[in-house]
């Protein structure tokens, strides 16, 4: 019995050591692979995924990097990431708006071409796409913000007046002109990048960013009182007393703040010059004198 | 030195003399043509604007009608938690069925763009007479395959695709190379210096996967005329998976001459290199053994197929 069992025993032991060695090797190789795979999840900010792309995590589980979307894009917008390029996960499709933006094809051929569902066929109207969100990142160099009438991003936007509007604000520099501020409305912006492409500056003042970078998020429990009130058609809290609004200026309970000092209040400071107000701001307009 | 009648000729010398250059390289040439052909199909679009085939080996569309998808990648995708759309499922199924019929590793020897690289490394390895180097068990690749699925599930990504030289090289050739040359060089150097026949024979999980796919495949190599074998060992020298030969070639009379190991890549090099024409392509139910050609009559020849 012992003679028969011995070789078997050795066989089993060898099998066990071999398997253990193999498992250990795979654990090391697997950890490395997992590390590399996780690294590859870092998507650079200027790389925009095609329309309908699932969110980045789901996308990397779904995209087989076949490039069929790239082939069917009539504008050569999409490219596959090269290996070793400082870009998205190797072989995955993306575009750089400043190079070639998405022209927002009506039939969305890229989505139709995708065999895996990495680009969601649920996207049937390109105007619902959310590839990214345009952000006017540099108000100091945007020509419109400087008070000129460039308007290019606004005019080229396929979603003009929905995704970008020009909102008038007072031009404090000239004192009597308006600034036509390009304002992006994230809900309507598809992230096509045409505005970024066409911005006349050498480095665009408006850029398409991934939604995760471009947008904040309100607290889940936040409600906008005025909207709730409109929706209800009545004050949200019943029986609430509407107090008079406080306005800046004399006659309110403002403290002595910029503008003047009451004599003796602070040591060593001169008294309030003649004619200066006694605290608070000098209002732009005065309430009519009310005689009580 | 040898006092025996037979001098040890360089590998393939005998076949060369008996069959001529083309006869001794027939399947090698056919394979290279096939590899070039499949690559060319994909290059017709980018090079000449003829878009019969779009995409790459990971997923393609032929004549806007026939989808083909790499089933290994789809498997990882499912492990990562994404259920593919019907198009990819159909594409994957077609590929699976085809390779299940003709032999999984036909992919390796007739299609894979890395194969010429590792073949080249092996050729040079032979020329330079280098050491075998690191030889992990042949089963290592199955372990790696399992690891790939595990990592896909854990990271939620198609894990092997971040390093897979097979699809990277193909994608590189069709869509633009980038640093893929480095990948090719790495595989070449690995096979040349670190491990003889290392990548395809011991490591590549793609090959391992297709081995599994082809376990029951119909197209097989058979050592039909094994009784003619003169023990020159040339087939062992050229076979990338030479552990598969012995059971068929050296089997007793009641053992099938078919090479049934799924590791066989159906490359046909053994057919080329054998001066005695021992091997040939056949199907898995053809377990004939032919009588030795110099014996006038051999009564023990036709053996019944047991399986
Ligand atoms: S919508 Fe048209 S332009 Fe935009 S990425 Fe898709 S195919 Fe290209
Ligand atoms: S078609 Fe779909 S799976 Fe293929 S590269 Fe484009 S997004 Fe990825
Ligand atoms: S990216 Fe620019 S051009 Fe495109 S929809 Fe948004 S705002 Fe308009
Ligand atoms: S083992 Fe891998 S690299 Fe080698 S031929 Fe097969 S698939 Fe290609």
TrEMBL record, chain A:
Keyword tags: 4Fe-4S, Electron transport, Iron, Iron-sulfur, Metal-binding, Repeat, Transport
Signal sequence residues: none
4Fe-4S ferredoxin-type domain ranges (all copies): 52-83, 180-211
PROSITE patterns: 4FE4S_FER_1, 4FE4S_FER_2, TAT
GO molecular function, one term: 4 iron, 4 sulfur cluster binding
Name the record gives this protein: Periplasmic nitrate reductase subunit NapG
Top-level taxonomy: Bacteria, Pseudomonadati, Pseudomonadota, Alphaproteobacteria, Rhodobacterales
Nuclease recorded as keyword: no
Xref: InterPro entries: 4Fe4S_Fe-S-bd (IPR017896), 4Fe4S_Fe_S_CS (IPR017900), MauM_NapG (IPR004494), TAT_signal (IPR006311)
Biological source species: Aliiruegeria lutimaris
Pfam families hit by this protein: Fer4_7 (PF12838)
TrEMBL record, chain B:
Keyword entries, A-Z: 4Fe-4S, Electron transport, Iron, Iron-sulfur, Membrane, Metal-binding, Repeat, Transmembrane, Transmembrane helix, Transport
Domain 4Fe-4S ferredoxin-type: 220-250, 256-284
A GO term for molecular function: 4 iron, 4 sulfur cluster binding
Transmembrane segments: 36-53, 73-102, 142-160, 172-194
SUPFAM superfamilies: 4Fe-4S ferredoxins
Pfam family, one: Fer4_5
This protein's GO CC annotations: plasma membrane
Signal sequence, renumbered to the chain: none
Superkingdom classification of source: Bacteria
InterPro entries: 4Fe4S_Fe-S-bd (IPR017896), 4Fe4S_Fe_S_CS (IPR017900), Electron_Trans/Redox (IPR051684), NapH_MauN (IPR011886)
PANTHER family noted in UniProt: FERREDOXIN-TYPE PROTEIN NAPH
Protein name according to UniProt: Ferredoxin-type protein NapH
Organism of this sequence: Aliiruegeria lutimaris
